[in-house]
Amino acid sequence: MPDSGRGLSAVRAPFFDDQNGLPELPDAGWCPLEPTGPAPSLRMDLARTIETEIIPRLMLAHRGPGAVREPLPVAVPMVITDGDVADFAEMIVRKPLSAARAHLDGLRDRGLTAEALITSMLSATARHLGVLWEQDRCTFVDVTVGLSRLQQLLRVYGPAFEISPAPEVERGRVLLAVVPGEQHTFGLAVVEEFFRRAGWHVQSEFLPSKPILLEHVRTEWFDLVGLSASGEVAAANVAAVVKAVRACALNKKLHIMLGGNLFVADPALAVSLGADFGARDAAEAVNRVDWMLETKKMPC
């Protein structure tokens, strides 16, 4: 079987200057309203290279030792607004990485939980950059910088999220993967953090081919398979993948969930595509699985 890369390890050599930022970026209008960047065909090739080569390697590198920070008690939970996300997106693109870390550490000291930091800041910022890219409002360099730094920040703050609270029992084995043909992988990395924290043994395949995905479920026991779809693959093709996974799964009672941008507005769409349920985000995915498992334990 081709090596998925999970076993690879490497020492990160920063591609960008974490201390000095990116002085070559313009001083204003980092997300201009006018289209910018290479020609459409070249833009697609460059975007695919970032998503399929650079970003997965960042996710598969050793997780950095994140400092565990206990939030101070606060009377009112912090609320992260769309404006906060937009400002942070500009920060990670135009400022040194140390500035982004200082900003997040400040939010943690003010009471922002590790869970909220990952979902309300890191994941939301990735989605925001994706929207700007689709609207031609940011450049290839902007997206490259933003996504790579989000991966670095996830490696820093992920360990603090995983260890609190410690799971009482191991839940089971879950395989997480993007639907073959999809390219967006950051959301899957966030889901992985949530399931590890909840006590699941997680195996991730960020960019599997369909044969590799089916070989995993055919030869290995999984209690749950989570597939991510952002909308690059047609719904009918997602349904075909779900059907194939069920047909060849070693566990004939395998549960399948679908998540990603395709299901944010309508999680129920997942059921119509053959999955057991859909989830808008990582926290909802874990909660839905917990509810499903508890329901199975209830006497008839």
In words, what does this structure look like?
- The chain is an alpha/beta fold.
- The protein has 2 domains: 40-162, no CATH class; 173-297, 3-Layer(aba) Sandwich (Rossmann fold), CATH 3.40.50.
- The chain is 49% helix and 8% strand.
- It has a 5-stranded parallel sheet, with helices on both faces.
- α2 packs across α4 (114-134) and α2 packs across α5 (140-162).
- The termini are far apart.
Keyword list:
300 residues, alpha/beta, Rossmann fold, 2 domains, five-stranded parallel β-sheet, 5 strands, globular, disordered N terminus
Which sheet architecture does the biggest sheet show?
5 strands, parallel
Low-confidence stretches: 1-29, 32-38, 51-76
What structural category do the secondary elements indicate? Answer: alpha/beta
Number of structurally distinct domains: 2
Under CATH at level 1, the class of the largest domain stands as Alpha Beta
Q: Got a strand count?
A: 5
Write a short abstract of this structure.
This protein has 300 residues and is α/β, with parallel strands linked by helices.
Topology:
Blueprint (H helix, E strand, L loop, with lengths): L39 H21 L21 H13 L2 H13 L4 H21 L5 H23 L10 E6 L7 H12 L3 E5 L4 H10 L4 E5 L6 H14 L6 E5 L9 H4 L4 E3 L2 H16 L3
Parallel strand pairs: 1-2, 1-3, 3-4, 4-5
Helix pairs in contact: 1-5, 2-4, 2-5, 4-5, 4-6, 5-6, 6-10, 7-8
